[in-house]
Structures are given as C-alpha cells and as structure tokens.
Amino acid sequence: MLELKVDLNERSYPIYIGAGVLADTPKLITHIGKCRPVIITNETIAPLYLPSLLEQLNGLSPLSFVIPDGEQYKSLTWFEKISAFLLEHNCGRDTCLVALGGGVVGDLTGFVAACYQRGVPFIQIPTTLLSQVDSSVGGKTAVNHALGKNMIGAFYQPKAVFIDTDTLNTLPAREFAAGMAEVIKYALIYDADFLEQLNELHPKLSQLDTSSLQYVIHKCCAIKAEIVAQDETEAGLRALLNLGHTFGHAIEAQMGYGNWLHGEAVAAGMVLAVKLAARRGDLTQQQVEQITKVIEKYDLPTLPPSQMNAEQFLSHMRKDKKNKQGRIRFILPTQLGRCALVDDVSDENVIELIGR
Ligand code: NAD
Ligand code: GLY
Q1: Ligand nearest to the CA of 261
Q2: What is the rounded distance in angstroms from the CA atom of residue 34 to the CA atom of residue 50?
Q3: CB-CB contact of 158 with 124 (8 Å)
Q4: pLDDT digits (tens, 9 = 90+) for 301-331
Q5: Which residue minimizes the CA distance to atom 22 of ligand 1?
Q6: Do residue 202 and residue 317 come from a single domain?
Q7: N or C, which end of the chain has less CB nearby within 10 Å?
Q8: How far does residue 5's CA lie from ligand 2's centre (Å)?
C-alpha cells in the first residue's frame, strides 16, 4: 500500500492507495473516530461494495443511503433527500459521511458534508479511475444546477481518501478510458517523462495490472496534492488542472451530458489545446503527434464531434467559470509537460482551429 499526504495544515489528510485498502478495517475506523458512519453510494455500486463495508463497520452502527446512478442526481434535490435522511435518523455533528462511488457520489456527499449542521467530517472511497486520480482529492464538492454544471458547491476537504485499485475490476472499460484522460492530463501539465511512461505502460494498464495502477494513481495524486497544497481555492496554479476542460465542457454541454463522458470530452479538448499550442509555436508537430498517439492508444477520442462548429464551441466557452472580464481563458501547453493560463486566444484563432 502507498500513502500520500495532502498538506493543508490543520486540514491535512492522507491518501491510501493499493489493492485491498478498503478491507483495512482498523485504518478506516481510525479515521471515522468516534463518529457514526453514514455511507452514501449509488444503486450500481451498492451491490458490489456496500455489504462488505457495512459488515466491516458493524460495530459503529453504520447507516447507508443509496441514490440512483447518474449525473442528474448530483442535484439540490438529492442534496435535500440525503439531508432529510440524516435528520430523520437524528444524525448529529458526530456523523461521518462516507462517499463510496465515483465523482458523482463523491461531489454530492462532500457537499452535503460541507453543509450538514455547518459541516461534518467525510471520507472518500473513490471507485472509478477518474475519481481516484482527480475528484476525490482536493476538496472540490458541488451539485449541478439546471443552468450549469457544478455551479453550487464548496471547497471542503475530506478526512481521508481510500483508493482501492481492486474496485477498478468491475468498472466498465469506457469509464476506465475516461479516467485515463485525466491521467494523461497530469503528464501534459506536470511531467513529460510520465507521458512516455504511460505510452509504455499501456499493455499493463489495460490488463489492470495492480502495481502499474498503483504507480499511476500514486503519481497523479502526488501531482494533485502538490498543486492543491499550493493553491487550494484555485487562485492560480490549480487552474492548470483544467487543461482540455474549456473545449471539453463545451463538447459535453453541446452533445448533452452523458452522451460524451467527461473524460472523453476532456481527451478531445486536450488535443484541441495541444494543436492550438502548436499554432502558437509552443509545441512541435511531432509533439502533437506524440500526445495524440497516447490519447488514441487509451481508446479516447482525439477529434471533437464532427457536427460541432466553432460558433457552438465559442458560445459555450463564453460561459466558462475561468473567464475574466469577458475573455475566454484557456490552459495551453507552453512546452511538453508544462502548461499556462492564457487569455489572448481570439475568436478567429478558435474558428481557424475548429475549421468549420
Ligand atoms: P460517475 O460517478 O458517474 O461514475 C461513472 C459510472 O461508473 C457510474 O455509472 C457509476 O455507477 C459506475 N461505477 C463507479 N464505480 C464503479 C465500479 N467500481 N464498478 C462498476 N461501476 C462503477 O462518474 P465519474 O467519472 O467517476 O465522475 C464524474 C463526476 O465527477 C462529474 O460529476 C464531474 O463533475 C465530477 N468531477 C469532480 C472533480 C472534483 O475535483 N471534485 C473532478 C473531476 C470530475
Ligand atoms: N479537477 C480539477 C480540480 O480539482 O481542480
């Protein structure tokens, strides 16, 4: 098992990574402390992992609440339903919420934890690759609003993150690939050598080789922990984690949420960002091909939807949360393994890039 720390002074917390960490009952109980655990999960994950977790925590009188499966349930409606459940069961501030699931369960549970009785502790047990390398670490919690994704939320850190690589054995292949987009993102923003390692590790990672998964997840969490420790609330550096997301969010919104998975849209978005960087003279054509090849290798799209034109991209990107003074801001590579926030991309640049 590997262990990392997110260093945020009194809000610091450990991340445990390895095959079978979920079965480490004493460690789990240590982090729950004297609280009563309430496990929040969804109807897909519950039959797979909830019974054993309830059994492990049996001595702490655990409760569980199962939500339906889907991004649409990351909503104020389900925030309210979970809060009502907690109140009905007389849960006080000595309650510890346990998020067992992917980013949807994690973001929703974290936001309830941030608000319930002005804040109760919570633990992340991420079960998708995307949530293991990204959403469970760093304390971004949120629900969606009809007018925008993740528009209502809080920065609220968990007490611990338990990443059990064995849970990936039941994850659909398409969801695994979507998580790989975020993995590749870390290489592009922080570590050019890691990109080459991902290229070489492809056969092992596709076989869900435990030590390769552990290595890759640890690497991503270490990068994220370092960034979050320096910029918890995204005043600057943390925005780099949005590489590919400006174009990607536009794809998700245009195609209808769920039709393109978040990671798929980010993958196509990263290729657009990389091509834009090459047009600005910051990457060579050979580097564009090298990056595109790795993204393709992991069964991810490298082109945006053929029916989507530049005006559609621009109209979604004009609503991006990173925008300032009406300017669309992009994260673009400045060299292989380094990125920067830029605000000098014109509409014409986007039109030329999309080409329609
Ligand atoms: P998800 O939570 O919807 O999970 C994807 C699918 O996999 C679901 O159907 C789920 O039921 C299923 N699943 C999960 N674990 C499984 C397992 N082990 N075996 C079988 N099936 C399993 O999606 P996601 O990609 O994990 O997360 C996406 C969400 O994360 C979005 O809401 C996004 O906004 C959010 N997000 C948040 C952050 C953050 O920093 N907080 C970062 C990135 C993404
Ligand atoms: N997923 C981007 C962030 O946590 O900042």
Answers
A1: 1
A2: 21
A3: yes
A4: 999 999 999 999 999 999 888 888 889 999 9
A5: 171
A6: yes
A7: C
A8: 17
